């Protein structure tokens, strides 16, 4: 058996692979420009010393995303969904991430840059990828001895595996010429990010409802459910954003918190600071930004309380952080209702450890709860066994599960998403799009294809936080109450 420490290290490489391309090679989503270093070590823009032949750098840098893989009109056809164990899943597919050469990379070997900057794998793995043509420069294959130049366009093609999300329909509450309003199920991010692309609201609406080119007006965290406003035009989106920024829009959320919340209205005005942008964690801090949330208890079932939340500002994780500070964290909040903050879970503020220690502890705790288990057949340095060359594939090889689920992973607290007219059509689609092993292609060069999969548990798919109502100057939209917020709910 492989040593536990090696399993953690190997698993870290697998998980980080999905993140390095979004953290460093994120220009497939957002443009970046070469940044160099002056003598003082400060970032300075650098002009290209020589143009790259065959590439219209100006057009690409001006945002001609259609010229880059993943942004053409065919992006929604890259792969298909399938439904299994109450989850929406995506067949693995090839995807190309791109980035321009950064100033600090100029003159360095391509393989050295990948090994140093993108530390998800060993040098040998990147050498194999370059030799196989999965890493290219200026749309051409190069050797492992290639040295990078200004304005080089790097591309890295990966066999992309997405994380499963809840197998629930996206209920469309309002569909007009200028606006789309939906009830977002939890576990689904709004935009493509990290290990989610097709399993995002934007892609699902485009693929299943033909709704493309939508502009989101406000944010909802991946685990949060409820009302989400989107505009069909930039102008309308800007109008709504200005209303929200001008605090002309009232927002109401529902949550279920631990314990008996006070009967009187509670107002929290503690400033909130982003402790770590990298892992997305916030906390109350004197150095944070001003914010205000009002809370009103609606019911108590003997163990937990349903609370109506009215945020007057829109800070990241504002409701969750303020509830944590007050000592009434959301019942199933995997982040802010955790002893990693200390024995008091940061009630009254982060007093039991430093911010730096918190970030370190959070990385350790949450890296152990991912949907992929450690690979079972890699060599100790993460390279490919000699008898399995890094090319070719196996069609019809079903993904292996660490353990076969006893039943559906669909949480009972979300059964309201499977009610109504949309659910009838959705259930029929789920049956039609059951797993087809002929569509699952296992690639030998893909490390994730060597993993055994672990489906997320029901409790990993949501938190009891629901966007209920938005009211503007001359409009109002409201979502359905979730099952867990009703008076007769006892399953905490």
Automatic annotation (TrEMBL):
Active site residues per record: 221
GO terms of molecular function: pseudouridine synthase activity; RNA binding
Region (Disordered): 373-400
A Pfam family this chain is assigned to: PseudoU_synth_2
EC number(s) reported in the record: 5.4.99.-
Cross-referenced CDD domains: PseudoU_synth_ScRIB2 (cd02557), S4 (cd00165)
Record field: catalytic activity: a uridine in RNA = a pseudouridine in RNA
Organism, scientific name: Hyalomma excavatum
Domain RNA-binding S4: 109-171
Function statement: Pseudouridine synthase that catalyzes pseudouridylation of mRNAs.
Entry similarity comment: Belongs to the pseudouridine synthase RluA family.
Keyword Metal-binding among UniProt keywords: no
Superkingdom as given in the UniProt entry: Eukaryota
Enzyme class: isomerase
Regions that span the bilayer: none
Name used for this protein in its record: Pseudouridine synthase
GO biological process: enzyme-directed rRNA pseudouridine synthesis; mRNA processing
Keywords, in A-Z order: Isomerase, mRNA processing, Phosphoprotein, RNA-binding
């Amino acid at each position: 058996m492989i040593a536990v420490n090696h399993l953690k290290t190997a698993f870290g490489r697998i998980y980080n692979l999905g993140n390095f391309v979004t953290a460093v090679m994120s220009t497939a989503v957002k443009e970046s420009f070469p940044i160099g270093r002056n003598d003082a070590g400060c970032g300075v823009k650098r002009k290209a010393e020589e143009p790259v032949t065959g590439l219209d750098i100006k057009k690409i840098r001006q945002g001609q995303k259609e010229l880059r893989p993943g942004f053409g009109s065919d992006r929604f056809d890259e792969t298909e969904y399938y439904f299994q164990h109450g989850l929406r899943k995506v067949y693995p597919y090839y995807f190309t991430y791109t980035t321009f050469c950064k100033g600090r990379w100029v003159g360095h070997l391509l393989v050295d840059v990948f090994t140093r900057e993108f530390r998800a794998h060993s040098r040998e793995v990147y050498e194999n990828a370059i030799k196989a043509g999965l890493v290219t420069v200026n749309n051409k294959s190069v050797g492992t001895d290639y040295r990078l130049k200004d304005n080089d366009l790097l591309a890295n093609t990966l066999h992309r595996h997405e994380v499963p999300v809840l197998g629930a329909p996206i209920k469309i509450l309002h569909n007009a010429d200028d606006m789309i309003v939906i009830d977002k199920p939890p576990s689904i991010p709004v935009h493509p990010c990290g290990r989610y692309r097709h399993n995002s609201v934007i892609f699902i609406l485009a693929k299943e409802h033909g709704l493309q080119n939508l502009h989101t007006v406000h944010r909802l965290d991946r685990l949060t459910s409820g009302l989400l406003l989107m505009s069909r035009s930039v102008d309308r989106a800007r109008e709504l954003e200005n209303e929200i920024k001008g605090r002309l829009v009232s927002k109401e959320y529902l949550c279920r918190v631990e314990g008996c919340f006070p009967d009187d209205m509670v107002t929290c005005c503690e400033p909130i600071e982003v402790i770590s942008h990298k892992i997305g964690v916030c906390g109350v801090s004197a150095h944070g930004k001003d914010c205000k949330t009002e809370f009103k208890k609606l019911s108590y079932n003997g163990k937990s309380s349903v609370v109506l939340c009215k945020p007057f500002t829109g800070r990241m994780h504002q409701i969750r952080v303020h509830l944590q500070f007050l000592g009434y964290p959301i019942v199933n909040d995997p982040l802010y209702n955790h002893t990693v903050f200390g024995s008091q879970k940061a009630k009254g503020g982060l007093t039991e450890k430093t911010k730096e220690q918190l970030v370190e502890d959070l990385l350790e705790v949450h890296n152990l709860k991912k949907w992929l288990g450690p690979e079972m057949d890699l060599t100790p340095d993460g390279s490919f066994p000699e008898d399995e060359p890094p090319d070719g594939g196996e069609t019809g090889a079903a993904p292996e599960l660490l353990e076969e689920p006893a039943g559906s992973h669909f949480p009972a607290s979300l059964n309201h998403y499977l009610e109504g007219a949309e659910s009838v059509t959705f259930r029929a689609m789920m049956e039609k799009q059951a797993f087809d092993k002929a569509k699952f292609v296992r690639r030998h060069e893909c490390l994730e294809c060597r993993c055994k999969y672990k489906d997320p548990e029901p409790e990993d798919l949501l938190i009891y936080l629901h966007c209920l109502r938005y009211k503007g100057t001359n409009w109002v939209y409201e979502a359905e109450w979730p099952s867990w917020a009703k008076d007769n709910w006892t399953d905490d």
